[in-house]
Amino acid sequence: MHVSVWQGLVGQDEAIRVMQNAARATASGVADAEGSASDMTHAWLITGPAGSGRSNLAFAFATALLSTGPDTLDATIAQVRGRTHPDLGVLTSQKVIISIDDVRSLVTSSHFSPSIGRYRVMIIEDADRMPERTSNVLLKALEEPPERTVWILCAPSEADVIPTIRSRVRSIRLRMPSVQEVASLLRAEHGVDEVVAERSARLAQSHIGMARRLATSPEALARRQETLDLVFGIRGVAHAMQAARRLNDIALEDSAAITTERDERDRAETLRNLGVAPGAAIPPALRSHVKQMEDDQKRRATRSVRDGVDRILTDLMSAYRDVLMVQLGASHEIINHEFRVELAEAADRLTADETLTFIDSITVAQQRISSNVTPLLALEALLCTLI
């Protein structure tokens, strides 16, 4: 396939090779030196750490399967990126939990025949967010798949989907790319200089999406700086409570920065699809569609705030992992070079056991937030363990 289908995927050469071979085999219909019909299957599970590029690989593979030839490739790439291809179904995790109705709707559409290509491709991002009852609805579709439908699921690990689904998919495991690989991508995609690219990739711990934000958004970098300044400055209960409130506000600000532009774009696209001119009143018959979109945006905002708090906790984890490295005499392995003074002060103030206790507390806070504990309460409880 054309190289542009796979561009932007970093450090995943083996996974790309497997999927290229599968797409090549289906395009030719015959075995060749690199691919065969057996390379293709009706269901795939892409796993890997957050930021490793699971969704990017899923959509690249979808593009390769949906493209009908070199002449249509550019149009297919644009349609897949815009989620407008008639043979592509996508279920994203705008909600904290993927609902059973959403999966039923996707399963129903998976039985339609392809409109213009060889396949219909159904993608479920964050398949780990399906409860067991919802997963069982998908399981039936995987057990009796339509002949020309391909399912692509994304999850952090194989253990995050139920065993019966695992047994019916082909797994592709991604690795975390190196700092150097992500930095090279940032330089190529955004034209940032070498220093900015390395710093962004390093502070994001090779999380591609976060590295892009740090490289292109001074505000995102400033919020990260403030996060660590606040926590390293805690000296008492009052400081801890104030810092928790401010961290919660930072998460809200970060969420707003991410969702506002997307919400405006989604609203404009929805109104255009409904035939409503810009600035025109919404006809009563169409208001339920707009209300549905607005409800989805509210749920997405809730998820985005939780993701923002999780990013803060990930940054704190990296900082106190650095504190532990200093305490163990491995200062050359630290991530947050810009905080060398603060790391040294924290290493002197805490014992290694206390540092490990705080790192464990960060993990507990992440688990609490994933269980729908109010983020502010989880942050307050976490920061009090520093006292």
TrEMBL record:
Q: Which InterPro entries match?
A: DNA_Rep/Repair_Clamp_Loader, P-loop_NTPase
Biological process (GO), any one: DNA-templated DNA replication
Q: Looking at the Swiss-Prot or TrEMBL record, what is one Pfam family this protein matches?
A: DNA_pol3_delta2
Q: Which PANTHER family does the UniProt record give?
A: DNA POLYMERASE III SUBUNIT DELTA, REPLICATION FACTOR C / DNA POLYMERASE III GAMMA-TAU SUBUNIT
Specify the protein name: DNA polymerase III delta prime subunit
